[in-house]
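Example record

The entry below shows one chain as it appears in the dataset: sequence first, then structure tokens.
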Amino acid sequence: MNIALAQINVHVGNFDANLAKMLDYTARAKAQGADIVVFPELATVGYPPRDFLEFDDFVEKAEAVIQELAKAADGIAIVVGSITRNPVVEGKDLYNSAYFLANGRVQNIQHKTLLPTYDIFDEYRYFEPAHEWGVVRYMDKTIALVVCEDSWNVGNENPLYKINPMDMMMEHKPDLIINVSASPFAYDHAANRIEVMQTNCKLYNLPMYYVNHVGAQTEVLFDGGSLVLHADGTVIDEMPYFKESMRIYNTEEVKSKDNVSGEEPKDKMTLIHDGIVTGIKNYFGKLGFKRAILGLSGGIDSALVAVLAARALGPENVRCILLPSQYSSDHSVNDARELAQNLGCQYDIIPIEGIYDAYMDVLKPHFWGKDEGLAEENLQARARGMLLMAFSNKFGNILLNTSNKSEMAVGYGTLYGDMCGGLSVIGDVYKTECFELARYINKDGEVIPDNIITKPPSAELKPDQFDSDSLPPYDQLDAVLYQYIECTKSPQDIIGMGFDEALVKRTLRLVNINEFKRYQTAPVLRVSSKSFGMGRRMPIVAKYLN
């Protein structure tokens, strides 16, 4: 049997485009001799569809896609993820299902049992878990159809779920496993994903054909990396990251370990770089936008965003606005100009001192007797935000936010100022990782001027200002933030690791009191296991650690 895995980039709710793409891949797979073509979880509707699932019309359109795909299942079988109505009154209205289409009809449907409700996942909000488990018989094979999470409850001393649907399916003695998944990207997730699938293969002594989404849906990135594994857990092949692809595998060759390609390399900075570029490209493309603007300050954060945007959209579609104030250094303006020239991006220089002075003329009578401070500093950031949004409105471009994860964590940013934007590009990249990413970008030649990478970070909102005046050294700050945000460690836990007590308490307090800012920021492209946004839900009004 020849099985084609098609890791495709679909679009939430774009039923016509999703159907057309799957019909095209089906025809190509059939022409190349495939007996089955496999598409990812919820490929008909896109993942995650969220509250669109509450609209009956949305469900009807998904059902229509299945019927059209079934017509194409002639001389080739199609495995595809979609939604199914629950026929009984009890329970949720829908199932998350894997469909097996053959001979022009729906032959089998296997519903998903384990519904993840953590991090970015909220499937139990919409779906009823499966209560029955079976297999598919096709040609000379018995196939266990599995939807994503149903393969993740193995090899764990503290399993998340009380039942394991894989055990139920094994009672039917399948010959192989086909897993349709929507497994989001995080730079450290791919290795874990492979390990879990290897555990399944070894435990049940079965080969696995695993297909994943690729591309981005708003802030959620999918890396692809679809897998074929031998029954002993050997990775026969891993498909490319962040690239649509289809490969055909012969089950006998997999069984005999012919043509073992093994795993793709997994360099952290390569994955983050490629993930963000994919995220920008898909955010713009799926929204129907072509051009971006950003404020280019001469600092490392905006430099990274400019490079990543130029690589995603083309430099001709990225406009950099330099907005120097009376506190901006000459080298910052020169560095920003040099970067824009290196990239081939259009750039404009608009000094903001006059705008700032006009603001101050209006406010001075009302601020009389008050020392200058944060309000005056933030006026500069808000003047920049106002100008950038004016460009965005006038030319129909999306403004890219340039805040990094460290700044977003501790609130080192100005609401309606430098926190403006339609997409947060590096909001899940810590400052120390920003330096790593910049060096990665420059590994084959200087793209980002070296001075941008080596000079001390500064907001340049007052004379002789540096980030270190307001924040701990970034290597210490980021280490504490990682333990609190990604690892959910308590203050006592973090202090017990050897971190300074005052540093820990101050940092965690800053994170918690600035939750209100993060509620108002742009969607953050998710590259880590715990990003700000959908995957980290904290109250604003809370006493804990404040």
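Notes for this example: DSSP finds 17 helices and 19 strands in the chain. The mean pLDDT is 95.
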